[in-house]
Design a protein that fits this description.
Oligomer: single chain
Pfam families: YajC
Structural class: alpha+beta
Number of helices: 3
Membrane topology: Single-pass membrane protein
Distance between the termini: 81 Å
Number of domains: 2
Shape: rod-shaped
Protein name: Preprotein translocase subunit YajC
Organism: Paenibacillus cookii
Order of helices and strands: HHEEEEEH
Number of strands: 5
Subcellular location: Cell membrane
Helix content: 40-55%
Largest sheet: 5 strands, antiparallel
């Protein structure tokens, strides 16, 4: 009974030595597949999201209604390359970093309210 197992190990060892190139491929293939999965599930969507956010920030203009990351709603009164002055109510104006804008409120969504 033990002789069968020994002969199997010898045969498996001999076959493994002859196919050394396939051994290397079997080690690299899972790493390549993991990288591809990470790229398509994590990296690529994050890059697309960052691209749309940058285009939204560059398209901001005076008079747009926006929401900051902290949840403050306001209207843009002044805008420069790195700062935004928001009018919160009739007398209150606050200065924020341009990157602190979360999203712009579309006029179509505002008209539905």
């Amino acid at each position: 009974m033990f002789e069968k197992f020994e002969s199997f190990e010898i045969a498996a060892g001999a076959g493994g030595a002859a196919g050394g190139g396939s051994n290397f491929l079997s080690l690299i293939l899972p790493l390549v597949l993991m990288f591809a999965i990470f790229y398509f599930l994590l990296i690529r969507p994050q890059q697309k999201k960052q691209k749309t956010r940058n285009s939204m920030l560059s398209a901001l203009k005076k008079g747009d209604k926006v929401v900051t990351i902290g949840g403050l709603h306001g209207t843009i009164m002044e805008i420069t390359d790195d700062t935004v002055v928001l009018r919160v109510n009739d007398v209150t104006k606050l200065t924020f970093d341009r990157n602190s804008i979360s999203h712009a409120i579309s006029t179509a969504a505002e008209g539905e309210k």
